[in-house]
User: Which sequence fits this backbone?
């Protein structure tokens, strides 16, 4: 049959329904008359004949309904009907509909938002061509592996890999750097990347303007080219396309702008070393090196390295070849140390650290949606008895059971669809908010957005949600038999213990999920608390830290730098309220700094005897200012000037001279050359990089120690007797009086630094806590609903009990007991679930076990208390039943 | 015909209807009686199966319908074969012949 004819029929069926229906009715009735005529002809009395005909025909309405269903377009017609009918139903219960749509919107919105993040960060492949062939290269010095299992890459090693490792199509290195931009306008400290010239080509990133670097620009003294990021080009240079080919001044030296990167480009932190603290990326410059301190084969491991494997080369084969080369390098280095390497798929290296936390978040947020579903299923179930009769009438009128299910499901899908649309809007706000407040350490944060797959996800979640909370009530309603329609308000359908049971099961489920979420959130909260209370080894209160960056053009010599620091300290010490002040190259919680070995004279080449230590030049006042206790000996004095003396942390003393006096002992510091140094003091251990990590071995050196011991950037640490924030302005003014050209990178109280160091953890904890508390709220709504419903149902029974002499408290207790039993089961199940799930998040915990009894008990108590309150309100109403009214109520 | 049979023999019902209309227009009751008669009561077509089938086949263009007078002067809706319907009957008959032959052979063989 041709298409137009079919369309014509469809249109006629849909638009001229009245007429076709009329026609159908006449036809079926005519059939009945003919049937009766036939019976009369066979000898039946007219009355009898009509009755027999009716019996033979069956229900006229049912026949008509079946014909209607056989017609083309029936499904469309029914769908329209169902949607209209459902909309009417929802409109008639505006309270229920609003609650349902709102909770659904929040649930679906939160899920979609978190999924957008997961999708952008974890699921979408890295935005580089053939990203599957990209691997991060980390170096391993087995003798140091106890302290730092993996090291970043070393510049001379990289140069050897480029020549000798043939499995690599190419390999590139990068480290974060900064420079002071001068020239037109205010001098500004800008942040960027120092990378081998081939990095951009290796990643497959093309500048939108200009060129990438050429190999010569990696050579010392020739790397004066610079490529700017899109952001910086726009904000500082107003997207001036004539900038390429012009000269800008970085650290006072002319640099030629050769290119502008595309707007989407951001070099992930994992590709530029691990401690890139500044998340701004303004420029990329070539290696222009090695610098003097970068010439050792086993020395400064500072660079993030990324290799592109040749097509068809397996990572195992590449690693084997790389390790052969590493062994040769170790031999050439002749330091008695071994050297190996590790290849890490780039994707894993970049997003791996974030995976656990994000997947956990997704799990938590989907638990919230499950609770929303359970709640709605419960609410719908409560309305089942009221609708049983209606369903029975519809069945009597010829609706099939499938048809009824379809209609009821249309209702729940209409709800979930409305919730889904609203949820998408909430999600788009949520994603914007997330990007705004998420800690910058989250990889690929700049790529987070909603795309087609997020829409598909939202659509699927919406559909699944509708099915989840709609199927159970729909199924129950359609158990209605036509006969029930006659037994109008029969107890059989209005009072159904089965429905109560189903609702109690749902409540138990909600409580279990809520308990689980709360316990996990509690564990994260407890972890954060433990971290903040951990003895860091340094003081936090009343300390102000000013980070300064000395412009290289005016501070290239050590005496100049030292003079600046000395003048600042002198000035600071006489400020009112300042008790101590000192400087340090890199203050605690700000990154790794210089990490190389320390050993003992004569024994230093024996493996395992040269642990990695963190070297930090300090002024002698630093320890008192920072509140690091001096345990033995003394700090640096002018009398030591010119001598190789060090102050070490307690763990070094324990390691080398356990039980002996470390003062006056000689150790070999391997920082910019091996030097025999005398220990003059021992100070307490501190948590140097992260509060979570056990203290590192620390070596503090005086400014005269060597040619790199007066840093170009440092933190001035000031301990005050009053609120440190109050001193900030005067300290800012003082530093600028000493030299107005020196940028102050940051001026923060130590409390803020500590707080910022746990920001990612706090962010995650707050999100999970929000989800858990919303669950608790939803679950208590669910409990309230069930109890209120059951009290309403049992009003009559309660009245009789009262009339028969039951005490009010007995009734209250009975209702409470009934309400609390699914809660208690749920709490128990939740605790079991949490101990299982707790194992999965063990890596996110600190200082608490995944079955911390205090957290579990606290959460159980909270859930029980809130549930009790949710039960109590309706229970009180039960107690308020007047026996007389109860009887009249029937 | 029971519910299960209706489903099983959907195509069969269509063919029987087409066949019964081969001699001329009939109303619904006429069709069901004709089918009963030619199958000697093996198939009794319930109205709940007959009418949906008639309307479906009309939509497919195999049948056309018009209102007319019955033998005892009652208005009734008459169905008759269209050209497509006649062609469909031929195809169905031919197909049915093949199937029943094949099944008969299969049953004899085993």
Assistant:
């Amino acid at each position: 049959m041709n298409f137009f004819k079919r369309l014509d029929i469809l249109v006629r069926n849909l638009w001229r329904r009245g007429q076709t229906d009329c026609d159908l009715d006449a036809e079926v009735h005519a059939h009945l008359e003919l049937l009766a005529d036939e019976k009369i002809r066979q000898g039946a009395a007219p009355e009898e004949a009509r009755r027999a005909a009716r019996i033979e025909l069956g229900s006229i309405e049912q026949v008509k309904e079946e014909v209607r269903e056989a017609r083309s377009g029936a499904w469309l017609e029914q769908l329209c009907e169902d949607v209209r009918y459902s909309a009417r139903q929802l409109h008639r219960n505006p309270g229920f509909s609003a609650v349902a749509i709102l909770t659904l919107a929040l649930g679906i919105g939160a899920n979609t938002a978190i999924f957008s993040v997961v999708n952008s960060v974890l699921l979408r492949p890295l935005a580089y061509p053939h990203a599957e062939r990209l691997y991060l290269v980390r170096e391993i010095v087995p003798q140091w592996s106890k302290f730092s299992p993996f090291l970043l890459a070393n510049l001379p090693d990289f140069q050897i890999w480029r020549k000798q490792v043939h499995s690599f199509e190419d390999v590139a290195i990068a480290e974060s750097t900064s420079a002071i931009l001068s020239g037109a306008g205010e001098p500004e400290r800008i942040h960027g990347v120092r990378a081998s010239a081939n990095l951009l080509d290796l990643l497959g990133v093309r500048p939108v303007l200009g060129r990438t670097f050429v190999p010569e620009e990696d050579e010392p003294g020739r790397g004066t080219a610079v490529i700017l990021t899109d952001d910086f080009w726009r904000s500082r240079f107003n997207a001036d396309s004539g900038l390429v080919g012009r000269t800008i001044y970085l650290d006072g030296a002319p640099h030629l702008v050769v290119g502008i990167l595309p707007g989407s480009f951001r070099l992930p932190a994992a590709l530029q070393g691990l401690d890139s603290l500044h998340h701004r990326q303004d420029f990329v410059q070539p290696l222009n090196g090695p610098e003097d301190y970068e010439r050792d084969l086993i020395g400064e491991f500072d660079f993030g390295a990324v290799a592109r494997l040749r097509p068809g080369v397996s990572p195992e084969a590449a690693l084997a070849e790389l390790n052969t080369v590493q062994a040769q390098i170790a031999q050439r280095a002749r330091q008695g140390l071994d050297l190996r390497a590790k290849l890490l798929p780039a994707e894993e290296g970049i997003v791996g650290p974030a995976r656990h936390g994000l997947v956990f978040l997704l799990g938590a947020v989907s638990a919230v949606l499950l609770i929303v579903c359970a709640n709605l299923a419960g609410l719908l179930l409560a309305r089942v008895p009221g609708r049983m009769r209606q369903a029975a009438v519809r069945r009597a009128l010829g609706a099939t059971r499938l048809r009824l299910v379809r209609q009821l499901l249309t209702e729940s899908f209409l709800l979930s669809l409305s919730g889904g649309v609203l949820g998408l809007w909430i999600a788009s706000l949520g994603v914007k908010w997330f990007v705004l407040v998420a800690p910058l350490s989250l990889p690929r944060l700049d790529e987070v957005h909603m795309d087609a797959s997020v829409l598909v996800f939202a659509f699927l979640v919406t559909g699944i949600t509708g099915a989840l909370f709609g199927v159970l009530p729909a199924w129950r309603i359609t158990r209605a038999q036509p006969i029930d329609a006659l037994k109008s308000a029969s107890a059989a359908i209005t009072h159904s213990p089965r429905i109560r049971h189903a609702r109690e099961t749902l409540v138990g489920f909600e409580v279990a999920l809520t308990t689980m979420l709360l316990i996990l959130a509690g564990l994260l909260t407890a972890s954060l608390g433990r971290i903040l209370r951990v003895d860091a080894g340094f003081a936090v209160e009343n300390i102000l830290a000013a980070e300064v960056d000395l412009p290289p053009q005016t501070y290239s010599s050590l005496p100049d730098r030292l003079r600046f620091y000395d003048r600042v300290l002198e000035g600071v010490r006489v400020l009112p309220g300042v008790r101590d002040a000192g400087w340090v190259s890199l203050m605690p919680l700000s990154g790794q700094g210089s990490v190389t070995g320390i050993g003992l004279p004569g024994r230093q080449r024996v493996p395992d005897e040269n642990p990695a230590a963190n070297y930090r030049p300090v002024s002698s006042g630093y320890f008192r200012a920072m509140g690091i206790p001096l345990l033995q000996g003394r700090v640096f004095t002018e009398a030591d000037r010119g001598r190789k003396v060090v102050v070490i942390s307690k763990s070094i003393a324990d390691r080398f001279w356990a039980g002996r006096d470390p003062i006056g002992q000689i150790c070999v510091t391997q920082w910019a050359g091996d030097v025999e140094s005398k220990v003059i003091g021992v100070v307490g251990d501190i948590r140097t990089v992260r509060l979570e990590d056990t203290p590192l071995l620390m070596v503090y050196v005086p400014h005269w120690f060597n040619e790199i011991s007066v840093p170009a950037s440092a933190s001035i640490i000031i301990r005050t007797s009053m609120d440190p924030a109050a001193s900030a302005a005067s300290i800012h003014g003082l530093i600028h009086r000493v030299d107005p050209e020196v940028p102050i990178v940051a001026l923060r109280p130590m409390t803020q630094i500590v707080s910022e160091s746990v920001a990612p953890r706090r962010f995650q904890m707050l999100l999970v806590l929000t989800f858990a508390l919303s669950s608790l709220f939803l679950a208590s709504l669910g409990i309230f609903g069930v109890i209120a419903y059951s009290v309403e149902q049992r009003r009559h029974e309660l009245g009789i009990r009262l009339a028969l002499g039951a005490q009010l408290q007995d009734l209250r207790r009975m209702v409470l007991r009934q309400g609390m039993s699914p809660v208690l089961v749920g709490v128990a199940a939740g605790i079991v679930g949490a101990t299982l799930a707790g194992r999965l998040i063990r890596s996110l915990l600190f200082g608490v076990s995944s079955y911390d009894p205090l957290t579990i008990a606290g959460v159980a108590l909270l859930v029980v208390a809130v549930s009790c309150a949710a039960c109590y309100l309706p229970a009180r109403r039960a107690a308020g039943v007047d026996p007389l009214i109860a009887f009249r109520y029937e | 015909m029971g519910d299960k049979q209706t489903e099983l023999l959907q195509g069969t019902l269509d063919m029987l209807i087409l066949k019964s209309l081969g001699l001329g227009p009939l109303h619904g009751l006429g069709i069901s009686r004709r089918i009963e008669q030619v199958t000697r009561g093996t198939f009794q077509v319930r109205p709940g199966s007959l009418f949906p089938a008639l309307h479906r086949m009309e939509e497919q263009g195999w049948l056309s319908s018009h209102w007319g007078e019955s033998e005892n002067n009652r208005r009734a809706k008459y169905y008759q074969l269209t050209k497509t319907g006649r062609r469909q009957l031929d195809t169905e008959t031919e197909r049915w012949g093949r199937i029943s032959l094949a099944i008969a052979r299969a049953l004899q063989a085993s």
